[in-house]
Amino acid sequence: MRRDVVVTGLGAVTPIGATADDSWDALLAGKSGAGPITRFDPDEADCRSKIACEATLPEETPIGSDKVGRYAELGITAAGEAIADAGFDPNDPGWEAERVGTSVATSIGGLPEIEDTVGQRPSSKFTLTYLSNLTSSQISILFDAAGPNRAASTACAAGAHAVGDAMREIESGRADVMISGGAESILSPYGVRGFDAMRALSTRNDEPERASRPFDVDRDGFVIGEGGAALVLESREHALERGVEPIATVEGTARSADSMHPTRPPEDADGLIRCIERGLTDAAVAPTAVDHVNAHATSTPRGDEHEATALNQIFDSVPPVTGTKGLTGHTLGASGAIESVFTVKTLQEQTIPPTANYESPDPDCDVPVVDETRSATVDVALNIAAGFGGTNGVVVFGAAR
Fold first, then answer.
1. Which residues form the Ketosynthase family 3 (KS3) domain (predicted)?
2. Which of 161, 238, 292, 296 is catalytic?
C-alpha cells in the first residue's frame, strides 16, 4: 500500500535570494539574478558569454566551502533551512536518524575546485570538494540522517529526479522523512566555455537581465546559474503524528529516456510526452486536473520548442505555463529542485509566478505563458525537467489537504 507523501519544509539559495522566501518574493517581483560574471574574468578565459546568475549565500552557513566546495555549501545551506522550516531539530531525542534519508542531486559537482587544483599537488581534502554525492552525504553527517542516501547525477533533470526518488523511499516505507533537492555551481572557465562551445549560452552580454527569454521568439540560449534547494518530504502519517500540517503533497513522479541523442531532443518529443503521461498516471491525475506547469524552459531555441510540442500533445488545453529560468538562469542539476520549491510555493500561496522577458511569442512555442504574477486556484501543478543524455523527469505536486 502506497503511503501519502507530503512536503513539510523548504529551503533555497538562488541567484535571486538567500532563502526560499526571499527567492519566492523576488520571483513574484520579477527580480533578475543575471549580471556580469564576477567569479572569474570571462575575457581572460575567452568566453563568448560573459554573464551569469550568481548566488549569494547567507552570512552564516552550516559548513564552509573550504571544507566541501561551493556547490555542496549551497545545497547544505538550503537543506538546513528546509529542516528548520519543517520544525525538525536533529538534536532532539525524538529524532529517528535511521528513518531520515537524503536524496540530493547535482549535474557536475565541484568543477571549479577541480580547475583550481590543476597543475598542483592535491591536498588531502581535494577529493571531498568535488564528488557528486558530497552534498547528500554531508547533509546526512551534519544533520544526522542515517536512512537511505541517494545522489542523482542525471544532468539537468537531476534535481527533479532526486525529489522523485525521495518520494519513492517514503512511499515504500523505507524512510519516514527525506531531505531532497539539488545543488550546482560550475561558474568557472571550463564550465562556461564548455557550454559556449556548444552555442548553448546567450551572448546578450550588454543586457544580462534580458538575456534569458523562455519561449520568446528572440531567445538565443540560457544564462548559466548556480544555486541549491531542498524540500523536506515526509509521510503524511509521520507529519500529523508530530503535529505538523503539510504545505503541499507529492502526488506522483516519473522519468524517461529519449533514447536518441545526447544533446538534441527528438522533434516529436516522444520521450518527454511519455514521461509526463506516466507522471500523471502515477499521480492518478487526469490532464484536465492540472492547473499549472512549471516548465523546464531553458531559453534555448530547440529546447523550448520541444517542451511546447510535448505540452500540446498531452493537454487539449494547456494550463498556464511559467519558465522561472528567465530570472534565475539555468542552474543545471539544481534547477529541478529550485523549481520544485517554486511549484510548492505556487500551491501554497495560490499565486502563479511570471516568466521574464516574454515579449514576442514564438509561434512554434504555442503555450499560454504567464508573463505577469497572477492569483489563481491551483490544486495540481506539474514540474518538468530534462537533461543531456535525453533524460526526462516530472514531479506532480498537489495543494495541501
1. 2-399
2. 296
